[in-house]
Specification:
The protein has 297 residues and is of the alpha/beta class. The protein is 51% helix and 9% strand. It has a six-stranded parallel sheet with strand order 1-2-3-4-5-6. Strand 5, helix 10 and strand 6 form a beta-alpha-beta unit. Helix 2 crosses helix 14, helix 3 packs across helix 5 and helix 6 runs parallel beside helix 9.
């Protein structure tokens, strides 16, 4: 395997400024305009990737300034319009990335009802996954290594969170992903699963059968080192043999928040949202300093 990277010629400023007509010009206050430029920056970058890859591209919806379900939906729709201005086939090429909070998943449900496909991130418990699947999310993302780390010192929680008793602590993240796969099959859902934070060859092999794996170059190299005679073991492993987990149909917001607090989701969502907010603020400061108000996009 050889990873080939194609350099982009666009500079950060060029991603924020684009001479083509845009709905950015129709934004109201300076604060609204800044939100629009942030969205347009992500759209411009995602469009570059969409032109260069065969599959779909995920683009983040800014859920820090969009704090309600209605605002998240409105942001995604505005970004969809921006993609259409660039002649990107949104339904075929773009997924809108939304974190698996209560409001985020409800926004995903409404967007999917309108044919706007979503990528649900920060999924660390079955309750998050069940709601995302029932919302018809196109894609949900698990984090195998981070899940393993959280459960390493909380072995009793694997049974409490319906992940089985006596599960190998190094494979709890794999087991969660398998259980989510079973949920999709039980609900006859359309949702696909991408497993991220895969830290080694053993985890990657145990995940064989998952829809998508996000692997770094080190793990790919380790997989390629495996003797071809042993590769039958990959096929023999049945990722899809988990039974349907017992997740209640009627999960209300209070039960959802309890599930977050008793799983890695509580800590990881908080940390992920915090890191994202810091990066978002840095981008906003860059835009305010380098992209003059009223200069197009």
């Amino acid at each position: 395997f050889q990873l080939q990277l194609t350099p982009f010629n666009s500079t950060p400023t060029s991603l924020c400024t684009d001479p083509r007509p845009s709905s950015v010009e129709n934004c109201g206050t300076e604060a609204d305009r800044l939100d629009c430029v942030v969205d347009k920056t992500f759209v411009n970058l995602a469009s570059l990737f969409a032109d260069r890859v065969e599959g779909k591209v995920s683009v983040e919806v800014d859920v820090h300034s969009a704090k309600t379900v209605e605002e998240i939906v409105a942001r995604a729709k505005r970004m969809k319009a921006m993609f259409q201005e660039l002649a990107i086939a949104v339904s075929d090429k773009i997924l809108f990335k939304v974190p698996a909070t209560w409001k985020g998943i409800e926004a995903v449900r409404r967007l999917e009802e309108e044919g706007i496909h979503c990528h649900v991130t920060h999924v660390y418990c079955l309750e998050q996954a069940a709601l995302a699947i029932r919302a018809n999310a196109a894609l949900l993302q698990t984090y195998v290594g981070r899940t393993n780390t959280w459960y390493a010192s909380r072995a009793a929680e694997t049974k409490a969170n319906c992940l089985g008793e006596g599960v190998d602590p190094s494979l709890v993240g794999v087991e969660l992903t398998r259980q989510i796969d079973a949920l999709v099959r039980c609900h006859k859902g359309k949702t696909k699963i991408i497993a991220a934070s895969v830290r080694n060859r053993e985890e990657a092999i145990a995940l064989a059968g998952c829809d998508f794996l996000l692997l770094n170059e080190r793990v790919i190299a380790a997989l390629n080192e495996k003797p071809s005679a042993d590769k039958s073991a990959w096929v023999a492993h049945n990722f899809h043999d988990a039974g349907c987990p017992d997740v209640p149909e009627g999960i209300d917001e209070a039960a959802f928040e309890v599930a977050l607090a008793s799983s890695p989701a509580g800590e990881e969502l908080t940390l992920g949202m915090k890191n994202s907010a810091v990066a978002d603020e840095r981008l906003r400061e860059y835009i305010k300093q380098r992209v003059a108000p009223g200069s197009g996009q």
